[in-house]
Amino acid sequence: VAALFISFRCFVLGMRNVDDLLSVAVYTRDRVNPYLFNYALSVALLHRADTQDVDLPSFIRSFPDKYVDSRVFAKAREEANIVPTNSRTPIEIPRDFTASNLEPEHRLAYFREDLGINLHHWHWHLVYPFEAAFDVVNKNRRGELFYYMHQQIVARYNYERLCHGLQRVERFIDWRKAIPEAYFPKLDSLVSSRSWPARVANQKLSNLRRETDQITQDIDDLERWRDRIFDAIHSGNARRADGTNVALTENEGIDTLGNMIESSILSPNREFYGDMHNMGHVFISYIHDPDHRHLESFGVMGDSATAMRDPVFYRWHSYIDDIFQQFKSTLPRYTEAQLSNPGVTVESVSIESGGTRNALNTFWQQSDVDLSRGMDFQPRGPVFIRFTHLNHQAYNYRVVVNNSGAAKQATCRIFMAPKFDERGNPWLFRDQKNMFIELDRFRVNLRQGSNTITRASTDSSVTIPFDRTFRDLDTSRPDGGNNLAQFNFCGCGWPQHMLIPMGNTDNPGFRCELFVMISNIDDDR
Question: Does 70 sit behind a cis peptide bond, omega within 30 degrees of 0 on the bond before it?
């Protein structure tokens, strides 16, 4: 199945021109698995030079069943067949449709099950596939970005946990022990007409014997790959297939390590270092039926579009991140020359929001999304769902910078972290550094003397605006020029509405620290 999946993706990517691609798409659309078709075509549209201006529909519009409570679709059929178009009301998805407050982990359901967050994870892996044509996979710093994207997800999740008075997530470090948390996704597949399997409490990983899926793997394999990766980290060298070594250097080592751990076809020795991260997902996704005796398919951890819904995703990636942190601990400290930007000093930093200084406000918001494209029937007109999500009041940064030298360009980075740990104590920096979340990154022009930088939170380069996450490709399409180029954008980015953690209702709120650095732009090229 996996080999067929990869072969079809490469086949679509290899079409000679757009006409051939369109012909193949028309022919295969109703002849192959819809998920396979959508993924392969999406990868092709994103990576072919001749389709860069082709719109890529939001995945939730194509396959809403991967994101929406299964009860919605029965109501949608009724709405579409009985209610006139101009009299329809959005179908509301309750905030607590997967669990109750009896489950402590459910306090984070608004984060784990957020539509934008799950779309972000799916789209990142679409842009950075681990297997495809070499030039598609071999992107600049791909392995390092695999580390950084997931590290930021874990940091944000831990941030939200602290806001709710919970401990940071516990690493899934012992693969022989039971996983205490359960997860019941409450999703149905419109393609297979079956429910996504649940993962009950206190289940253990088992050796996989799923011959039908061509998956035969032991937990011993995971442990062997892990040990070999740690050997590479502590020796400072990874072994290539030809017996030579590739040094895990200060500048390139984390990129090599990211491709080893995930793993991608860029791994220096995939046979030796294995497929630890990906197979970890697979082991967990089949925990309910490891030998296929019950003919069950994989759970949500087996799909990048749904994996972030499960609490164990964050336990698994906390462990993966810990491996990267161990590698970082072997590197020499940054030198003053590496960190400094001679002549540039950040004098002050503040945030202004709604006339209030240095305070951020979050709130619940309801938004509507049209799912008519993804129904397994042909609806007459739009079918809207209404979901509740976190959002925050827009704000502005005000950074005063002094430049004692000549006018220059620089890169401004803005991060935020909790001020106190779970016990209410100030952080040790070695722990707090892993809690910083990136809020923005942009270039600035510094003139000689004092400079005041004002930046709107809605302009953040690390986020994707809410309306673009759930946009309708059939309306509001610009005719051309820069506006069309902006419309046909990549789609990567953290959802803007989840930029700021929830906080809490205590007085004066959840205490945070803001960190701003102005770095030499030559070091970022």
Answer: no
Contact partners, residue 20, CB within 8 Å, separation at least 6: none
Beta strands in 27-99 (DSSP E): 91-92
**DSSP structural state of residue 171:** P
pLDDT (average), residues 13-26: 84
Q: Reduced to 3 states, what is the DSSP secondary structure of residue 377?
A: coil
Whole-prediction pTM: 0.92
Superfamily of domain 1-54: Hemocyanin, N-terminal domain (1.20.1370.10)
Pair of tokens at residue 208:
């996989």
Q: What is the pLDDT of residues 177-229, one digit of tens each?
A: 999 999 999 999 888 888 999 999 999 999 999 999 999 999 999 999 999 99
First-to-last C-alpha distance (Å) of the chain: 41
CA distance 299 to 282: 9
pLDDT single digits (tens) 238-251: 999 999 999 999 99
Identity of the amino acid at 39: Y
Residue 497 and residue 363: Cα distance in Å, rounded?
10
| Mean pLDDT score across all residues of the chain | 90
The beta-carbon contacts of 86-89 under 8 Å, at least 24 apart in sequence, are 88/381, 88/382, 88/383, 88/384, 89/384
> Domain limits of the chain?
1-54, 104-330, 336-523
Give the Cα separation of 25 and 45 in Å (integer).
11
Instruction: Identify the CA nearest to 461 among candidates 435, 433, 494, 484.
Output: 494
d(CA 465, CA 429): 32
**Domain topology for 336-523:** Immunoglobulin-like (2.60.40)
Q: What is the crossing angle of helices 34-47 and 115-127, to 10°?
A: 60
User: Do 71 and 195 contact (CB within 8 A), yes or no?
Assistant: no
Q: How buried is residue 348: exposed, middle or buried, by Cβ count under 10 Å (0-12/13-18/19+)?
A: exposed
Catalytic residue among 79, 144, 181, 262: 262
Q: How far apart are CA 166 and CA 160, in angstroms?
A: 9
Q: List 321's β-bridge partners, or say none.
A: none
User: Would you place residue 5 in the very low, low, confident or very high pLDDT band (cuts 50, 70, 90)?
Assistant: low
Report yes or no: 285 and 312 within 8 Å, Cβ to Cβ: no
Q: Find the largest Cα–Cα distance for the chain.
A: 72
Which one of 3.65.10.10, 3.40.50.300, 3.40.1010.20, 1.10.1280.10 gives the CATH number of domain 104-330?
1.10.1280.10
Active site residue 513: no
